[in-house]
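debug: dumping io for the single-chain case to check the tokenizer round-trip. Nothing else runs in this session.
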Amino acid sequence: MLEPELPKAKATIAYVMEKEEDIISNALYPQVAPKFLEERMAKKLKVDVDLAKASSQYYPV
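debug: decoded output
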């Protein structure tokens, strides 16, 4: 019997999830969906994702 995958997919992308469809995207495309969702969020917030990940304490303005 297969275990439910949607709760795991939701937990993986919870920090960048905007819509319910994002969970399905992550479940279907787990290799590319998180990066896509991060980039979508970064574009919306006008934040450099790589720079934000590199700095553990501060994000330069």
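debug: round-trip ok. The chain has a mean pLDDT of 86.
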